[in-house]
Amino acid sequence: MRVSSIIMAAGLSKRMNSAVPKVLHSLLGQPILAHCLDAVSKVTTEKPVVVVGHGADEVKSVFGNTVDYALQVKQLGTADAVKCARDLLKGHSDLVLVISADMPLLRAETLQKLIDAQSQNHGPLTMLTLQAPQSRGFGRVLRTPQGEVQAVVEERVAGAGQLEIKEYNTSVYCFSAPWLWQNIDQVQLSKAGEYFLTDLIEIAVKQGMHVETMRVEEEEAIGINNRLHLAEAEAVLRKRINQQWMLAGVTMLDPGRVYIEKNVTLGKDTFLYPEVYLRGSTSVGEGCVIGPNVVIEDCQIGNHCTITQSVLEGAQLEDEVEMGPFGHLRSGAYLSKGVHMGNFGEIKNSRLAEGVKMGHFSYIGDATIGKDVNIGAGTITCNFDGEKKNRTEIEDNAFIGSDTMLVAPVKVGEGAHTGAGSVVTKDVPPHTTVVGVPAKPIQKKKNAGDKG
What we know:
CATH class of the largest domain: Alpha Beta
Number of domains: 2
Radius of gyration: 30 Å
Number of strands: 42
């Protein structure tokens, strides 16, 4: 069965009080609309159609050709929004799923149940309804004494008695596609000056057809109309994700203070302290200890790493790396197995080989560091000459003394030493010790095979 989808995203969203279109506001690291598209894409067979209006160009710039777009020039209501998608979808599917872009908490499993219910329904549509203490602006479901759906009345035009009804229409539907396109033009302009999609329910009833309903949990039906709702939705998503990872074998000392975005992956037996933020495409291996106070974004972390009170961006760590507190890895940082990075260190666009020990208060940028190198406290690679970035290379087993400045481009040979406070402006040969400003050789160490 072919299933298409319409996601209504054309509203002005005045209550967000923002220059940013509502559907592009960030929710756990992704635009609100991205969460809807993720759920819909798992249960439909056709490319989603997003109905855009306000901020259309901005929405298109974010989602590109991953979806099809229907333009609603004037915001004339939900039925008008669906009509805008007709030319793209008519004749291409058996069922049409319709949702609002401001309902990012809907699960794919719920939408699949809705589709399954309509596929078994002889009537033209199935709708999600909600029973809850507060309406959140949803319309009321009107039923006959026998319990059959009779109509839906929007909150803004509902009478006093109708407002007392506690069954709400969530504006999530699955339609028979042929029936939808045959009847959408029958919707009349309301007193509110809009074409309400809910009028199709009364149209179906007048045709003697059954309208099926399916209940949804209140948590999934949180629509985002303002920033209070945005914060509510964020809390729900964080709770879902944290529960998922704890059941998968991750320990969280205080789950309410751990922030994990949707695309992050974690290995079992990893331990997360409070105030840990895992963002973007980050992956963390098994048996790691992260936190407290750690931010990791778009990084790959190996197994059995320990990271304390640090910030990592676009970096990669192999197994058994120790880092922090107060370390900073910037884009292109690569720490090989067993690297130790002390407090107040920073690494950018550099590769540290196995066994490197980097002391505190050091900056390593645009560098390649060999195996078992010791980098003393206060070491700086002076990588920028005012016009371009230059690289530093330090070969295996070198010893960089505290407060050394390495003025790139420069190479420190295998087993070489720099004295404390040295300013290295020229290449240092292997097994040579340099000191001073500028640094000069004072001694060439004997190789193991040299005769005395």
